Amino acid sequence: DGDAMIRNLADRRGSLDLLDRAADFGNDHGTRRLSGEEKARVGARLAVVQLLNDKPEGALTALSESLTTPLPAALTLERLDLQARAEADQGKTDAALTLIKGDTSLAADKLRADINWRAKRWPAAAASLWVLLSNRDKNPAPLDETERQTVMQLAVALSLGGDETGLAQLRSRFGSRLDGTPEAEGFRVITSVTDRNDSDYRQLTSAVANVKQLESFMASYRDRLQKGKLSAID
Fold first, then answer.
1. Using an 8 Å Cβ cutoff, are 38 and 10 in contact?
2. Can you give the pTM of this predicted structure?
3. Residues 1, 48, 104, 176, Cα dihedral to 10°
4. N or C, which end of the chain is more exposed by having fewer CB within 10 Å?
5. In this predicted model, what pLDDT tens digit does every residue of 185-227 receive, in sequence order?
6. Alpha-carbon distance 61 to 47, whole Å?
7. Which residues 6+ apart lie within 8 Å of 62 measured at CB?
C-alpha cells in the first residue's frame, strides 16, 4: 500500500510538470527503499523524468544506482535505450549508438533517428528515418502530422547529405501523399531545388535542420507523464 501511494504521488507531480519534485521524490522514496526488479523499474522511471527535465547526468545516476540482475529482457533493453539517450544528450554520440546496436525495436529505431539527427550525421539520419517510414507509402491512409514531419526531416537529411537518388525515391513514394498538406510546398522546394544557395531552400532546410531534436523516442514517455502515468513506465 505504501509503494502504491508513492507511485500515485509521483504520477501526480509528473503530470503537473513538477519534474524536479518528481525526481527528488523518486530518489527519496523509490530506488532507496526498493530492491531487485522493482528497483530497476523505478530507476528507469526516474531516468525518464530526469531526461524530460534536461538532466542527462541525473538519468545516468538513476540507472546506475538502480542496476541489478537478472532482469526481464524488455526491461534491460528499455534501460539501455534510456542510457543511450542520456549519453547522446551529453554529446557522446558513438557511445550512445553502441549501446543500442543490434536492437531492432521501434523505440531503438526512433532513438537512432534522434541521435543521428542531433549529431547532424545526415546519411545515417536518413537511413534511420527511412526505417521509421518503412512500408508507409503502401498504406493508403493519410499521413498524420508526425509522419509528415518525418518525411520532411528525411528530405532535409537526404538533401544535406547530397543523396540525389534518395531524394528522387522520396518524391516518388511520398510526394503525392503531401499534396494539400501544410508541408507540400516545403517538400517540393527541398526535394527539387538543385541550387543549394537558393534562398527559399536554405531557409527551409535551416528551419528543419535546426530543430533541437526529433524527440520521437521521448514522445510516448512525455505523453504518459502528462497523463499522470509515470508508474506505467517500465
1. no
2. 0.75
3. 120
4. N
5. 989 988 987 777 777 777 777 777 665 555 677 877 877 666 6
6. 8
7. 26, 27, 31, 43, 44, 46, 47, 50
